[in-house]
Every structure is written in structure tokens, then in C-alpha cells.
Amino acid sequence: MSRQALTSIVAAAAGGLVAALIVVAISPGGGTKTRTVSASTGAGAGAIASDEATHETLANLIYERAAPGVVAILASSPGGGLFGGAQGDSGSGIVVGARGFVLTNYHVVAGADRITVQFGGSGGATRRAKVVGVDASNDLALLRVSPQGLRLTALRFGDSSALHVGDLAFAIGNPYTYDQTLTVGVISALGRSISSPNGATIGGVIQTDAALNPGNSGGPLLNAAGQVVGVNSQIADGQGGGAGGGNSGIGFAVPSSTVLSDLASLDHGAAAQS
Annotated catalytic residue: which of 195, 217, 248, 257? Predict the structure, then answer.
């Protein structure tokens, strides 16, 4: 991973009136833990003119290039996952280097005693993974698997501070264990704030209407260039929380500006342990 690729990008700040929404972490299994998100009204607006054929072609290209770098994660624990009583929680992850590093959400793997990563979708190679770095305050975790025998496709990160409301957004992940699933939407708002599993506030969060469901946690939110601009982490639950909450059209991704800054320190820690 190059020093330039790990350079922190400063996210744009936003202000305005605040409203409360109920959100749930998008990792399946038993109950869920709800929390509030502040909704800033200071976001700008934009539009993209694109005919349907162009849109479909772009989605095809992005999927073909990015899907190999998105993995499915199964985290098992004796007492269940962080947000419920399930014996196994599933999520998604992003390949970030040729050395076998995979980035995901902390809440996907928290408390797990066995983590399995699958590459390339159903029937693809599986590897046991270990957690080598954690930032619970930003709900991020870095895993490592043995890269031997794997053809790893690392995804490239983009500049989340360059996003505009209305930009196309693409999510690839493992919703409800349907691996390698693509959903398409737009950037709905910028500068949101959500609560991490340990109660800390994550700022500069991206809101999207690309469908996110339990199991999408830890997967990439991509821009029209196929670059990772966020890590999909939570969804708003219009039913007031509870088990089984699914896509509401309001999803949240930790911005790449935060992710890249964290990745530099997490990767340095991982290198020190290897």
C-alpha cells in the first residue's frame, strides 16, 4: 500500500438544523441495537443527466472491476454478535492489499472467536482470518488472511470530499448472505453523523439510497469511477428498530477520508504484529 494512497483526506464539515432518526447496524442475527443519527440540513444538491443505457453499462463495468475485491465474512461467537444473540453474523469486507488485508466494520467481527472470509462469491476460496487492528470509535476493523494461493484484487479508494449530492453510488456486498450483490443509487446527503458501537460520534458520514441490508456492513460504497468512497455501516429503520430491519432507502457509509486515515494506522499496527 503506497504512502500516497494512505494520505488522509479532510472531509467537508456541515451544519444546520438537526433531526433524530433511528438507525440499526446492518449486520444480521437475532436482535439489533438502535441508535440515533443527526440529520444536517446543510447538504447541497446536484443532478446527473444519464440515459438508461449509459447507466446500465457503467454499473456493469463497475461491478466487473470491483466485485472481485469484495468478500463475504462470517463471524462466529459462542454468545452471539455485538448486536444480537445469533451464533453467526455475516457481513462484507474490502480487500485493501496484496498481503491479505481485508477491511470491514468492527461490529461485524466484535466478540467473534472464529472469522471466515470467502473470496469470489459462492464456491470461492475461503480463509480463516484474524483481527489485526481495530478502531471501535469509527466502527472499523482490519483483518488478515494468508494470501497464499489467492489472486487478490485490492480496491482503490477515492476522495469522499469530492462527492456531491446526486452523484451516482454503487454498493456491493453480502446482504442476507446473498454474496456479490450490487445495488445502485445516489448520494442522498453529506455530512451526517452516526454513533459507533462504543457510543462515539462518527462525523462526515455519507447518506445513500442504494439499497443496504443486513450483511452489507463492511462493504464498499463506490463512486462512478469505481473507487471506494465509503464503508457501508448502518441503515435507518423506519419501524423504530428491532430484528429483521431491512432497506429503508436511508443508508450510511463511513467516508473514505476517515477510512484512509484509520487504515494507515491500522496497517502500521498490523505490520508490527506480523
Answer: 217
Separation of alpha carbons 104 and 237, rounded Å? 21
Instruction: Calculate Rg over the CA atoms of the chain.
Output: 17
Query: Does 268 qualify as catalytic in the annotation?
Result: no
Do 198 and 148 share a structural domain? no
Rounded to whole angstroms, the Cα distance separating 33 from 85 reads 11
The reply to whether 146 and 184 lie within a common domain is no
Residues in a beta bridge with 255: 230
Which grid coordinates belong to 268? 502500521
pLDDT along the chain (274 residues), means of 10: 30 32 53 40 36 72 95 81 52 93 95 92 91 94 93 94 96 94 96 92 96 95 96 79 62 95 72 41
At 55 the three-state DSSP class reads helix
Instruction: Clarify whether residues 166 and 252 are in a common domain.
Output: yes
AA identity, residue 84 = G
CA diameter of the chain: 52
Which residue out of 27, 107, 188, 233 is catalytically annotated? 107
User: What is the CATH classification number for the domain harbouring 22?
Assistant: 2.40.10.10
Q: Which of 38, 77, 89, 139 is catalytic?
A: 139
217 among known catalytic residues:
yes
